Amino acid sequence: MPLSEKIRSLHHLLHIHLPGLTPYARALQVQSEHVRKHLDHKTLSDAEFHDKFKQPPVPTLLTFETIPTYTCGRRQIGRLSTSDIAYLRNEGKAGFYEDCRGGETTYHGPGQLVAFLILTLVPRLGSTTDHIRLLERSVIDTCSTYGIKGFTTRDPGVWTSADDKIASVGVHLRRYVTSYGIGLNVATDLGWFDRIVACGLVGKRATSFEGEGVTGVEVDEVADVLAGKIDVRLSKVDAAG
């Protein structure tokens, strides 16, 4: 039986953390349930929509750590051969999923924080690009908390050098409801990335908190820090709006 979800209500964000190692399919199920709440609210009649008792769901951050899993993005769905997928599954050592997010093949597993941000992208929150920037900047803020200098480049994600990527990003948008998000390497076994060209970026490599010299940090702790950083950035959007 899975461990109970840890739920925190922040000022502008509901943070749901799945403790332990969560099967990727379980995390997708939880994400789908919260995406559905946002989509259902968009189908309300005008009278229902403005009913104070039917307020839209708050932005929700789902964080978790999963068993070894490779995922591909929507542009690769149906394009990987049977032998490609078998290679990734590595004789049953890893799972494989086709995701509808942007981006290409990446890895999730123990020691990595996966964070899915689900919200309705109303005008004050900007465009899809603005949403991705919010995720990336929140990761940079989180890395800074631990003394790691992260930055963005023309390539997606968060980097610690021109060739070292500490966090990947990939999102999906359906009727202006966002899903998926980021994978931030904390104490990840980076050897798993050797089986792929991570995010399709040839010549680049993955790094982690440990790779940057920060050890002894738990994924659960980083999840709470990231949630706080996203909450602050959402509050700034609300204040500006």
3D structure, described in words:
By secondary structure, the chain is an alpha/beta fold. The chain is 29% helix and 26% strand. The protein has five helices and eleven strands. The strands form two sheets. Strands 1, 2, 3, 7, 8, 9, 10 and 11 form an eight-stranded mixed sheet that branches. The chain has a three-stranded mixed sheet with strand order 5-4-6, with helices on one face. 39% of the residues are buried.
What is the strand and helix layout of this fold?
Blueprint (H helix, E strand, L loop, with lengths): L5 E4 L4 E9 L1 H19 L3 H4 L10 E7 L2 E4 L9 H8 L5 E4 L7 E3 L3 E7 L9 H18 L12 E2 L4 E11 L2 E9 L19 E2 L12 H22 L1
Parallel strand pairs: 2-3, 4-5, 9-11
Antiparallel strand pairs: 1-2, 3-7, 4-6, 7-10, 8-9, 9-10
Helix pairs in contact: 4-5
| Percentage of residues in DSSP E strands | 25-35%
Find the count of extended strands (DSSP E, 2+ residues). 11
Query: In percent, how helical is the residue content?
Result: 25-40%
What gap, in angstroms, lies between the N and C termini?
43 Å
Unreliable stretches: none
> Given the helix and strand composition, which structural class is it?
alpha/beta
Using only C-alpha atoms, the radius of gyration works out to 18 Å
Dominant shape? globular
Overall mean confidence score, pLDDT = 91
Instruction: Summarize the biggest pleated sheet.
Output: 8 strands, mixed
H and E order = EEHHEEHEEEHEEEEH
Helices, by number, come to: 5
